[in-house]
Amino acid sequence: IEQVGNLLDNLEVYWTLTFGNHDSETIFGAVYDRQGLSDKIQEEFADSPYCLFKKGSVYGTANQVINVKGTDGAIRQSVLVVDSNDYVTPIEAVVHEKGLVDFYDCVHQDQLDFFKAQYAKGNIKDGALAYLHIPFTEFDEIAADDARILIGVREEDSYSPLHDLDDNTYKVFKEIKVLSATVGHDHINSFIAKYEDMYIGYTQTSDYFSYKGIANRSIHGGLVTTLTEDGTVYMQQVFADSALDSKQIALN
Description:
Distance between the termini: 33 Å
Number of helices: 5
Order of helices and strands: HHEEEEHEHEHEEEEEE
Largest sheet: 7 strands, mixed
Shape: globular
Radius of gyration: 18 Å
Strand content: 15-25%
Number of strands: 12
């Protein structure tokens, strides 16, 4: 994080991040827990004019609203940084129908209440872009209907939160009129799909080692979101392999 943050600072690019479920895990054991990581980032980049990361006051380690303004000072786009947390604690694993042990956490209700309150105050513009790590429950329905996919591919199931958790993420996102929700987590998925009135999907993976054979797949890259002065939002899949065609869609 320090290396990437310093790079972006040197490029004079504004940046923030949201955590996934592996950030406090290393092959050597955890150096920091997620709270410790948040404290470290805020301490390390306290004087940075480009780091927008804030630890926040509700459950989790990074829940933010970032508003992008036009040249006239009016809000053009709201960006929601949402901590989807990591594992149910204490771990109450179950074996679900996918045949895997399932113990992922979800966005907690006090986090969702925070975003609802910000929306009620007018601090979130309709059509916000949300970024989190673990896919919410509704991603499971996309797995059963490839016809919803607009760009990218689905190469594995969506491993959403523990199935008996009360995951209200999509319900609240819909209530506050979120336009898109982008996740990571499932390393070889890269699709963006339309679910009711919301675009939900994945960024490209940067992982070269955690899945067997993943280093040889032509899927590595990123998802670039472009906001225009007139309010149009574009999402473009870009690839580390320049021979692969970049794909773009307009969301509004």
